[in-house]
Backbone:
């Protein structure tokens, strides 16, 4: 993909250049594909969003901006969630970026031992369902949690994890990995020679850090701040468990729809949520373009690093150990909780909770795997096709397609789900309550990641190969199928593994569209938490993590085999 | 290879045949663990009918029926206070079933006169307190609505949102019947200042009290006994002496539901003495006079009840909820 195709650029979205149109008509297959993709994106990304906007302005059949006026009037049930969400978002963005930076710095710029382990720990929260952290926060730090109880009996200390502190803590732990991955790429890309020259010129370590390393990392810091701000604002799983007396937008919007079916209220809360997230997304695009956060695959080189001074190295090592310990403790609690009889009262060992998950929860688990299994290949291929179109092909509306297809990256899941309920509840497209609506939500909510991965991957493949195929007379389909796909296979598989686990662990969008026939395992987990059946919820959590780990390991070995075969062929 | 293909084919046909025997889709506002008691007993009696069900709070069921009105996904709604059913009836979301003998036998105050819903149990709003917390602080369990505001309890209360939960709305309406609208909302506002958090499900506060997450919760008395006391949690049950509210827990057929015939089978069975005797496992008060009662059951003559007008409560639901939101900011 071309560099810097950010929002700030002045090139028009539509370019009816003669060559573009001409090429499109020369290749009818390409024309067909472009039309189909536009239709899909229009129907399943734009239309549902438009319905949310519409719903916020319609009250009992007439146009009315009622709840927006209430918001401006300062009614607390609208203003409080808005202020609260922004507060949590800013704090999580700040703290998460800080933690991510410490980890990234330790892994890329120092020679502390155990980097591999730290790297693994720092990425683990990405593949686990984020709300598991909220669950373990209750187990550990709830009013009757293990640590709370110990501190109380020992020191008479009391605190409440519900509300702002709990949200900031759990969301920081859940989302700092994104900052870590972004900054790892950025810091890893800084040539150590720059720092060394600064020091050779007489700058102290500290001065070098503040005058060389930090300024070079600033775009990365800004990107990760915005990224975490977006993620925190759209988080649903943690606040629905931990918000306490501190209502946030996602949860209130969800309650307005599923608790009252008050469409204008829910839609208005959704718009209040959408404005800051999309603004942050636009800023992100404008500031750093798309490249800087395409770093999940970033592989920093640590060659040429000078050995770090012990006075820096060991304190840093200590901090990283401490943070890793906290993460492990949180996930360990879920495992421990899953094997206890009745959390908070009887901590005797039992397998009963797993029996429960595999009997009562079996249908939910099977549903989840089935639907994620359908959505993953479809979404993966569609993502690659779109990535291919926007990076390799010239056609009118290319930049528009690029922007629209990435839109759901910034649109909070709860709004995506809400839009699907509004859009597909009446004929001709009446699919609420079916498996199809869940699959579609999976596909179009996760597609931006697939596109992003696809773009990153296509950049590794020389376009000359495509041109050669075209010159030899192959059309769009043939080139895509015989040239691009095989070359892209390993990355595609890895991308699909990520997409599959993202589907299995997702909650915010699908919670709006699950039904009596199609209930998912994450939603079942949340119901258990709702009912304060923490041991059973923990057992669900353990099973979800195992499934995700299993899939990732499976895909990993598959990638290795594909790569091995490729090398063989050569 | 061919053999395994054949096997798959046989399996596929078998599964399809099994599916055709009948699947009943149901929404229930009963606790998950409780709903399982009745649904499993039903399936044992009618092995050909498979019940697929989702637990939602009563307000959520109503919201779901509104959302699915053009395309109903379930046929039966089991459990939840009758006020929510009355709202659903007024909005045309329920189907009448006067032919059911169970409906015909039931006294008029426990059923919809037009057959749109039928009562299956009654329950009373109660306080659940954590025994250890009371003991550690030398407190008595609350016996008055105003006790909730005592400094020892303030900040340690848990109860349900009146818009998602039938229990929550019954609490709000009870206070209105007891104190009048203005004073009731003023009290709810003060309670909101003392709340630890609001829950989506009506019975959730009981477990939270049991776990010590909060000191006092408000829920229906059967939920306090079934989910708290009988499970071994240190939970104490008490009632407000000024008077408390009650529900007639109901059941209804959903208008346009996909399996009306199967739903009627469940409906009739649920009204039988056999089914309602199962209520004793959850300490509910059954409405079928021939059903067996649980030991230690709380019945209507043991508590001071307000004059609860479910019809008024239903007609004023949306308005009261909006007022409550404005007052409390939740």
Residues:
């Amino acid at each position: 993909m071309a560099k810097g195709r950010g929002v700030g650029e002045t090139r028009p979205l539509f370019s009816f250049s003669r060559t573009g149109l001409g090429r499109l008509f020369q290749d009818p297959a390409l024309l067909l594909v472009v039309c189909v993709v536009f239709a899909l994106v229009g129907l399943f990304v734009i239309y549902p969003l438009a319905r949310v906007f519409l719903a916020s302005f319609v009250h009992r059949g007439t146009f009315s901006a009622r709840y927006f006026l209430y918001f401006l009037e300062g009614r607390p049930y609208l203003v409080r969630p808005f202020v609260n969400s922004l507060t949590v978002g800013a704090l999580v963005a700040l703290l998460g970026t800080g933690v991510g930076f410490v980890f990234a710095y330790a892994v890329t710029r120092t020679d502390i031992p155990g980097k591999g382990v730290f790297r693994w720990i720092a990425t683990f929260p990405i593949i686990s369902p984020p709300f598991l952290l909220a669950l373990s926060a209750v187990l550990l730090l709830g009013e009757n949690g293990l640590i709370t109880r110990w501190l109380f009996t020992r020191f008479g200390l009391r605190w409440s994890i519900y509300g702002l502190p709990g949200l900031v803590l759990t969301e920081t732990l859940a989302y700092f990995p994104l900052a870590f991955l972004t900054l790892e790429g950025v810091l890893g890309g800084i040539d150590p020679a720059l720092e060394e020259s600064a020091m050779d010129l007489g700058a102290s370590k500290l001065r070098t850090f503040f005058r060389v390393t930090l300024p070079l990392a600033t775009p990365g810091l800004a990107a990760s701040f915005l990224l975490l701000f977006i993620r925190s604002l759209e988080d649903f799983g943690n606040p629905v468990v931990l918000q306490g007396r501190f209502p946030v937008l996602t949860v209130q919007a969800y309650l307005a729809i599923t608790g009252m079916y008050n469409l204008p209220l829910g839609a208005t809360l959704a718009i209040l949520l959408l404005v800051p997230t999309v603004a942050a997304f636009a800023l992100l695009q404008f500031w750093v373009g798309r490249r800087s956060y395409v770093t999940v695959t970033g592989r920093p080189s640590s060659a040429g690093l000078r050995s770090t001074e012990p006075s820096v190295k060991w304190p840093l090592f200590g901090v990283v150990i401490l943070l890793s310990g906290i993460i492990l403790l949180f996930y360990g609690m879920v495992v421990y909780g899953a094997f206890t009889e009745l959390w908070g009262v009887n901590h005797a060992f039992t397998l009963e909770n797993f029996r429960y998950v595999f009997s009562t929860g079996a249908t939910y688990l099977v549903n989840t795997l089935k639907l994620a299994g359908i959505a993953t290949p479809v979404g993966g291929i569609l993502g690659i096709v779109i990535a291919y179109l926007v990076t390799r092909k010239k056609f009118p509306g290319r930049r528009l397609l690029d922007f629209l297809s990435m839109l759901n990256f910034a649109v909070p899941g709860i709004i995506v789900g809400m839009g699907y309920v509004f859009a597909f509840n009446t004929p001709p497209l009446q699919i609420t309550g079916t498996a199809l609506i869940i699959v579609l939500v999976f596909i179009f909510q996760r597609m931006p990641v697939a596109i992003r991965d696809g773009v990153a991957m296509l950049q590794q493949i020389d376009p000359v190969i495509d041109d050669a195929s075209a010159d030899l007379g192959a059309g769009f389909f043939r080139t895509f199928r015989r040239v691009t796909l095989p070359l892209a296979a390993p990355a595609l598989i890895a991308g699909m593994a990520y997409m599959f686990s993202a589907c299995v662990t997702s909650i915010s969008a699908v919670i709006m569209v699950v039904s009596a026939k199609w209930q998912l395992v994450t939603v079942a987990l949340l119901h258990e938490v709702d009912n304060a059946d923490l041991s059973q919820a923990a057992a669900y959590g353990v099973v979800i993590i195992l499934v995700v780990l299993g899939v990732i390991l499976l895909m990993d070995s598959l990638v290795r085999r594909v790569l091995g075969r490729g090398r063989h062929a050569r | 290879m061919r053999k395994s293909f054949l096997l798959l084919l046989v399996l596929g046909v078998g599964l399809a045949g099994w599916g055709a025997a009948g699947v009943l889709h149901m929404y229930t506002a009963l606790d998950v663990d409780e709903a399982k008691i009745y649904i499993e007993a039903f399936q044992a009696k009618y092995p050909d009918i498979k019940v697929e069900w989702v637990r939602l709070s009563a307000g959520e069921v109503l919201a779901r029926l509104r959302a699915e009105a053009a395309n109903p996904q379930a046929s039966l709604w089991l459990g939840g206070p009758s006020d929510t059913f009355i709202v659903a009836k007024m909005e045309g979301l329920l189907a009448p079933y006067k032919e059911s003998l169970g409906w015909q036998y039931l006294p008029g105050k426990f059923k919809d006169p037009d057959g749109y819903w039928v009562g299956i149990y009654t329950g009373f709003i109660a306080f659940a307190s954590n025994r250890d917390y009371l003991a550690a602080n030398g407190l008595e369990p609350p016996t008055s609505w105003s006790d909730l505001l005592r400094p020892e309890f303030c900040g340690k209360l848990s109860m349900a949102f009146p818009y998602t939960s039938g229990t929550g709305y019954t609490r709000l309406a009870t206070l209105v019947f007891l104190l009048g609208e203005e004073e009731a909302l003023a009290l709810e506002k003060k309670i909101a200042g003392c709340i630890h958090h609001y829950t989506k499900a009506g019975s959730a506060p009981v477990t939270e009290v049991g776990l010590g997450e909060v000191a006092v919760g408000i829920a229906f008395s059967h939920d306090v006994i079934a989910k708290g006391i009988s499970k071994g949690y240190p939970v104490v049950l008490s009632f407000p002496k000024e008077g408390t509210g009650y529900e007639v827990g109901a059941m209804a057929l959903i208008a346009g539901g996909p399996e009306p015939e199967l739903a009627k089978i469940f409906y009739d069975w649920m009204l039988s003495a056999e089914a309602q005797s199962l209520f004793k496992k959850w300490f509910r008060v059954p409405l079928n006079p021939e059903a067996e009662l649980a030991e230690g059951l709380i019945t209507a003559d043991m508590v001071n009840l307000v004059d609860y007008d479910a019809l008024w409560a239903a007609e004023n639901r949306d308005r009261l909820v909006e007022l409550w939101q404005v007052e409390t900011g939740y």
